[in-house]
From TrEMBL:
<dbReference type="InterPro" id="IPR013517">
    <property type="entry name" value="FG-GAP"/>
</dbReference>
<dbReference type="Pfam" id="PF03995">
    <property type="entry name" value="Inhibitor_I36"/>
</dbReference>
<dbReference type="InterPro" id="IPR028994">
    <property type="entry name" value="Integrin_alpha_N"/>
</dbReference>
<protein>
    <submittedName>
        <fullName>ATP/GTP-binding protein</fullName>
    </submittedName>
</protein>
<keyword id="KW-0732">Signal</keyword>
<dbReference type="Pfam" id="PF13517">
    <property type="entry name" value="FG-GAP_3"/>
</dbReference>
<feature type="signal peptide">
    <location>
        <begin position="1"/>
        <end position="31"/>
    </location>
</feature>
Length: 405
């Protein structure tokens, strides 16, 4: 039973650990545990849920006479309950989270008499950090506004959280809610390009249940406008959708897609009306062997957008240089060891030197002398000649999210 888990707050300990924190293993006195009403968080001073019961539906900055007394708890709400050793939800001490359990079928204890405040949150990461991760980017006067939803020449990012909210990260460390929910209905989100032809970058989303493709026109502020159907169905036959910029050189942004059944790579050219035109075969097969993509924009200085892809079997990272005619030239090896990344992220020019860059979010296999485990953001500054500088571990706050775009 992993009822209680510690949230890592130290830079070197990302990820959940639970082993030492499980509660009392003895069967609860059913009558007492079931005294906790539906919709409440309850706690007892005993290890088996007997005796006087504490119950609340509200955040508590201090616990009064209950300070440092919780021994067993049950969370019959639909939110996470964060338990803090510090008062006022401080994160210097240990932080535990108790999973939503409306039926009250799981219970346990923090294993210590140290809880001094508690808080209800919808996403577990909010127990210890902002709902969105930290993103900083420099103004980039020389780069071409790629990865820039609010058109201020600072590379920005969209992040989806575990509860389906969408956050816009402008690049100054802050985050703005631009989608209040429902975004987990999509199993592909693509950006990097102005598809609607109004000069503002847009988002394309594939609806998992229907295979429909929707265009969410960017408002130029980081927010998205009313969606428009651009694909009536069938898009679930594609394993990957990637925004690549203008691959075929007609000034309109294009999409590439990998077909699940065949491993073929297709180009879907953007059209004058914001829809996608007749597809063109780019690759005859084998593209299912790639399990992460980034449409980074031009990396090698020929003004044509390039594509970065990771080979699943080897962990090698390859660049596919865009070439005249809207195809890709011979791939170039960028490096190996990339299987420790959960996701590649095309971020435009984050450091403002005029060259497109790359970011990656780590998975649990990642380890460096700065961060370990999942949820670290590593930045790779492009050289402008098709290469990247060594990765820079930027922050470990990209944890417990559901994708970045
Ligand atoms: Ca921007
Ligand atoms: Ca195009
Ligand atoms: Ca290029
Ligand atoms: Ca750069």
């Amino acid at each position: 039973m992993s009822l209680l888990k510690r949230l890592a707050t130290a830079a070197t300990a990302l990820g959940l650990t639970s082993a030492a924190l499980l509660g009392a293993g003895a069967a609860p006195a059913q009558a007492a545990i079931s005294d906790c009403p539906s919709g409440y968080f309850c706690a007892w001073k005993t290890d088996n849920g007997t005796g006087t019961m504490y119950k609340t539906q509200a955040n508590a900055s201090t616990l009064g006479t209950w300070d440092n007394t919780f021994r067993s708890v049950v969370n019959r709400t639909n939110k996470f309950v964060c338990l803090y050793d510090d008062p006022n939800h401080g994160t210097d001490g240990d932080v535990y989270s108790v999973y939503p359990d409306p039926s009250g079928s799981e219970w346990g204890g923090p294993g210590s008499n140290s809880v001094s405040s508690l808080k209800f949150v919808v996403a577990e990461r909010e127990c210890a950090m902002d709902p969105y991760p930290v993103w900083h980017a420099a103004e980039a006067p020389k780069a071409a506004g790629f990865g820039d939803l609010d058109a201020n020449r600072t590379a920005d990012v969209l992040v989806r959280d575990k509860v389906g909210r969408l956050w816009f990260l402008p690049g100054n460390g802050s985050g703005k809610l631009v989608g209040s929910g429902g975004w987990n209905a999509f199993n592909a989100l693509v950006r990097h390009g102005d598809f609607s032809r109004d000069g503002k970058e847009d988002v394309i989303a594939r609806e998992a249940s229907t295979g429909k493709l929707w265009l969410y026109p960017g408002a130029g502020t980081g927010s998205l406008g009313a969606r428009k159907l651009i694909g009536t169905g069938g898009w679930n036959v594609m394993s990957r959708l990637v925004g690549v910029g203008d691959l075929n050189g007609d000034t309109r942004s294009d999409l590439v897609a990998v077909e699940k059944s065949s491993g073929k790579l297709w180009l879907y050219p953007g059209t004058t009306t914001g829809t996608l035109g007749a597809r063109v075969l780019l690759g005859n097969g084998g593209w299912n062997g790639m399990n992460a993509f980034a449409g980074t924009g031009d990396l090698n200085g020929d003004s044509r957008p390039d594509l970065v892809a990771r080979e699943a079997s080897t962990g090698k990272l390859w660049t596919y240089p865009g070439k005249a005619g809207g195809t890709f030239g011979t791939r170039v090896l960028l490096g190996s060891g990339w299987n420790v990344m959960d996701q590649l992220l095309a971020v435009g020019d984050y450091d403002g030197d005029g060259h497109h860059d790359l970011a990656a979010i780590t998975n649990s296999s990642y380890s460096s002398n700065v961060f370990r485990g999942d949820g670290a953001l590593i930045l790779y500054s492009g050289t402008g000649t098709g290469k990247f500088q060594a990765g820079f571990p930027e922050t470990d706050s990209w944890w417990q999210l559901n994708g970045a775009f």
